[in-house]
Amino acid sequence: MAETIDDKIKNYRTAPFDARFPNTNQTRNCFQNYLDFHRCNKALSARDQDVSPCEWYQRVYKSLCPSSWVGKWDEQIENGSFPGKI
Amino acid sequence: MAHPTQLGFQDAASPVMEELLHFHDHALMIVFMISTLVLYIIVAMVTTKLTNKYILDSQEIEIIWTVLPALILILIALPSLRILYLMDEINDPHLTIKAIGHQWYWSYEYTDYEELGFDSYMIPTQDLASGQFRLLDTDHRMVVPIESPIRMLISAEDVLHSWAVPSLGVKMDAVPGRLNQAAFIASRPGVFYGQCSEICGANHSFMPIVVEAVPLEHFEKWSSLMLEDA
């Protein structure tokens, strides 16, 4: 990519168009970015690498997902009852 | 907003709604012309003393009244499809706002930068200040910057609702567990009203939507103020 991930995070305006989710139903877009954030964190910290690139996914899911969903999922992750695979 | 005895659409506040308005004028004009023609023919048939008992077939008129309707339909379909594809274009939004339907109010979340969220309740009739609109005004308005593509993500917390603002040309169902995307651009500053458009219980008629479009600087001031108050 011409722009580094740090630049993209710094110039973040809102979640950009994602060609994987071109239609009206953006539910999966929100969920996928939430999953990707946690997976990114898990993968990078397992190798003792800097987790700051994962912030992109966090910015996107925070833009897209209703706060009540995020709150519920965070609680489920703490409880160990989160249904997604991280 | 709508005015009493209004028949047509509200004035458009977004480019898409303008297109829809003009298309509606075009289609309605065709419909009026056809209806007038048919009515004229009926009256002419019914009030004439002339009769002809020996008409069998006529190639010419059959061709005309097959080809002409086909042409008219194409004349309607082409602008219609143009607008359909226009509405489907990939846009690059500047701002994402979530509108979540509850029984019986909307809550708005602006979470691109900070976590701004607030509820928007209808102002009860007995609490209206002078000049406010009955069943339409709310305590908090959804403020947006003008001339910026906005991405709306609509959902619901309990039952089905629908987020609609006619002058912006937006209506999108609010479904629990689902996130529906709609987009608009507010072409001019103003206050635009809408009402919940899916039956959702006792106070379905009493959870309106108010969008206030302002210049960007005013929007930034408003969002800082709202964050402080929260």
Account of the 3D structure:
The complex is a heterodimer of chains A (86) and B (230). Chain A contains 4 helices and no strands. Chain A has 86 residues and is mainly alpha-helical. Chain A has a domain at 27-81: Orthogonal Bundle (Arc Repressor Mutant, subunit A). Chain A starts with a helix and ends in a 7-residue tail after the last helix. The model of chain A has no long low-confidence stretch (mean pLDDT 94). Chain B has 230 residues and is an alpha+beta fold. Chain B folds into 2 domains: 15-88, Helix Hairpins (Orthogonal Bundle); 95-229, Cupredoxins -  blue copper proteins (Immunoglobulin-like, Sandwich). In chain B, strands 3-2-1-5-8 form a 5-stranded mixed sheet. Chain B has a 3-stranded mixed sheet with strand order 4-10-9, with helices on one face. In chain B, strand 1 and strand 2 form a beta hairpin. Chain B is elongated and about 85 Å long. The two termini of chain B are 29 Å apart. In chain B, 27% of the residues are buried. The model of chain B has no long low-confidence stretch (mean pLDDT 96). Chains A and B meet through helix 2 and helix 3 of A and strand 1, strand 5 and strand 8 of B. Chain B: Belongs to the cytochrome c oxidase subunit 2 family. Chain B: It is a multi-pass membrane protein. Chain B: It catalyses: 4 Fe(II)-[cytochrome c] + O2 + 8 H(+)(in) = 4 Fe(III)-[cytochrome c] + 2 H2O + 4 H(+)(out). Chain B: This is Cytochrome c oxidase subunit 2. Chain B: Its main location: mitochondrion. Chain A: This is Cytochrome c oxidase subunit.
| C-alpha termini separation of chain B | 29 Å
Low-confidence stretches of chain A: none
Distance between the termini of chain A: 26 Å
Order of helices and strands of chain B: HHEEEEEEEEEEH
CATH class of the domain at 27-81 in chain A: Mainly Alpha
| Largest interface chains and counts | A-B, 21 and 25 residues
Would you give the CATH topology of the largest domain in chain B?
Immunoglobulin-like
Return the CATH topology of the domain at 27-81 in chain A.
Arc Repressor Mutant, subunit A
- The 3D shape of chain B can be described as elongated
Classification by helices and strands of chain B: alpha+beta
| SS-derived structural category of chain A | mainly alpha
How many β strands of chain B by DSSP?
10
Tell me how many strands of chain A there are: 0
GO molecular function (chain B): copper ion binding; cytochrome-c oxidase activity; oxidoreductase activity
Cofactor (chain B): Cu cation
GO cellular component, one term (chain B): mitochondrial inner membrane
InterPro entries (chain B): CcO_II, CcO_II-like_C, CcO_II_C, Copper_CuA, Cupredoxin, Cyt_c_oxidase_su2, Cyt_c_oxidase_su2_TM_dom, Cyt_c_oxidase_su2_TM_sf
